[in-house]
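Structure, all three chains, one model.
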Amino acid sequence: MKHLIDIKALSAEKITALFAQAQQFNQTPIKETRKLHQGRSAIALFFENSTRTLTSFQLACQRLGIDITALNIEHSSTQKGETLCDTLLTLNAMQTDLFIVRHQQNNIQQEMSSWLNNETSIINAGDGTNQHPTQGLLDLYTIWQYKQDFSTLKVAIIGDIKHSRVANSLMDGLNTMNVGEISLFAPDELIPSKTKHLKASDMNTCVKDADVVVMLRIQKERLPEDLNVDFAQWHEHYGLTNERLKLAKPEAIVMHPGPMNRGIEISDEVADGSQSVIWQQVRNGVLMRQALIHKILS
Amino acid sequence: MKHLIDIKALSAEKITALFAQAQQFNQTPIKETRKLHQGRSAIALFFENSTRTLTSFQLACQRLGIDITALNIEHSSTQKGETLCDTLLTLNAMQTDLFIVRHQQNNIQQEMSSWLNNETSIINAGDGTNQHPTQGLLDLYTIWQYKQDFSTLKVAIIGDIKHSRVANSLMDGLNTMNVGEISLFAPDELIPSKTKHLKASDMNTCVKDADVVVMLRIQKERLPEDLNVDFAQWHEHYGLTNERLKLAKPEAIVMHPGPMNRGIEISDEVADGSQSVIWQQVRNGVLMRQALIHKILS
Amino acid sequence: MKHLIDIKALSAEKITALFAQAQQFNQTPIKETRKLHQGRSAIALFFENSTRTLTSFQLACQRLGIDITALNIEHSSTQKGETLCDTLLTLNAMQTDLFIVRHQQNNIQQEMSSWLNNETSIINAGDGTNQHPTQGLLDLYTIWQYKQDFSTLKVAIIGDIKHSRVANSLMDGLNTMNVGEISLFAPDELIPSKTKHLKASDMNTCVKDADVVVMLRIQKERLPEDLNVDFAQWHEHYGLTNERLKLAKPEAIVMHPGPMNRGIEISDEVADGSQSVIWQQVRNGVLMRQALIHKILS
């Protein structure tokens, strides 16, 4: 494994191997894992704001003994008229081992890997509305921890699926893992026109008998300006409440990629309830990124 | 010791033990102290700007072998509508060992520790106008280095005492150490209405026979907007000059938490004079924070 | 060697020793070099934006095992009215080993070293339009790698020489290395009035038979406001094209300090051509900074 740009590039076997690696890191003292990649370095190039994903990658690198430098892009040479390609080749000439890149433009990491002649590894930390493969992996890992067998699961995904790279990577990953069924629900404008998955007619149908309920964040900043979504009424029509959650299987888990809009896509009682695995997702994010980076650099 | 949120939580014995630990770190090569906490991590969450305090904590952590990540709060998820509690629980789920938090709101760190169920340690790096306990500790440590016995000392504190978390933590700590006498001087509007300490009638009385003179920074940004303080004449009435310093004991030391407004609360001749221990305070800041973090994580 | 503030302070012997040290670091695994300065710390104080230079210093320090803290100057105490001298003395009191300083004011690092009583080392990472000595060293190192003997070389330098600290440090260093000939070309307003080097009458003359062609970045932000330079026609008159490059010696190398304005001072075909050593310069930047910091701290 040289890069991780699109989760579709990973087979079920590779994904399962990452689960095992993450499990192992969970049981290994950081004092030990820090010895694994001493002398390696990574550069985080985030062209979009991030707290959780950037911090998660920083901690994952630190725990593997990798020096990670997060560039302040606002101050970067791209402001001085340098092309993105030249910025990348400059940093690459400093002989780093790994680039972790978030960018607002779809598919840019693929292009970047071609500029590097595939010499240096790239991990996609989110590109536009396209892919967020490490989030997909941590979501799969979390589902696997609770459910083990994907083939019998019904996974409900609710919210702005159309503009969600989180949903894209998760759906792709679930397909690879041969998931039983994916059920989608959203206002018509926010559901992909082409999808092989079931579009539920209403939220209750979507949630009914689900093993996993994934609530997406409403990202006002990603929605088309002319879209007329009534956010005031969002919670009533598309929010997950305890009442609706009762329609799912009794052991169903509730997931959310964060940051949460409490009272909009998810109620406090659900977010803080016993079926929520939201903090476990965050915890798994660091472990899965450790596992991935370890595989890529080994 | 799990947290340090308010200096009043520390007994004289605990404070004295921290002095001893700081002294020991002062004599130990960093190459050795860096081995103490390998694999531990800290997250600095500063909701207010800081150079000296943040850098001091960063160096203290580095010198103990702790990976410290300073979050860029301006870019954080709180801008995406996430609650402070969710931001904290998210970072906590990444299994860090210590949060170092500065915030403009009084008492917020106490609340944060309850959100964390007291699981993860919090050090208060300043909350509003309330407490700045590590500054208090480094100030006590500095006084102790020069004077040893607190019970015979007169400590003069001059400036905006009412809005100063530095003064609050120092006065609380001096009380715990059974200080001889604290004398305060400020314009009436800037002195706490309730205080058990002596309010001097004029600056000369305040400084007279003092063993320690603490000058506070005028923080225009913290003053009530309608307060009518004449900053142009501040130095004349409330500034420490060599002439005034002569009223103190001959071996009196002069302290200032920095950053200094030279020519306002303190004259150049005093700031750079032989009685100034201002750089020693900064030096002690790193050592005391090392001592504190070491105790908390041990 | 205590500081590096001006490249003129370095003898040819010292510069040659730095070449040898950089070569050695190039052949040593980072895992080994990281053991050299464990426990040392550096503070990067950049009062001007930078990606490449700051990152280069950060990686150089990391690869020597030095903890480097890059201060966010926008948030710094200088905004709170603190003098630059007090900011420096504050950081110095935290017992760091090295300051790496970029500042818009010429000669400020010299002044800073006097404030520090020469106790702590300073490396100049660029001061105004005056000096950028580590860039000069990496440029010399790159020329040396390709050409070895400086005394027979013709070096052409083209662009805004007058406002270029890069050109200043390079010309000074080339003088020290006893270069054969330096030929300069620029619009009259952008060439220093006093220079002992040849001002070419046109670009072809400047480039003709050169062994090294150094293209400078047009820095619109550094030019006097009233200067009437036609940037639209810059490429035609002062840009390096393949056609012009043919006038140089067949083995001539092309250098640029970056970031490049492609299509202005340099054409794509030259920047990406076989004679370009631009990425090698960047690579050498980290190695040379490692070599320099190693010498200073040893």
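Residues 102 and 295 of chain A are 20 Å apart (CA to CA).
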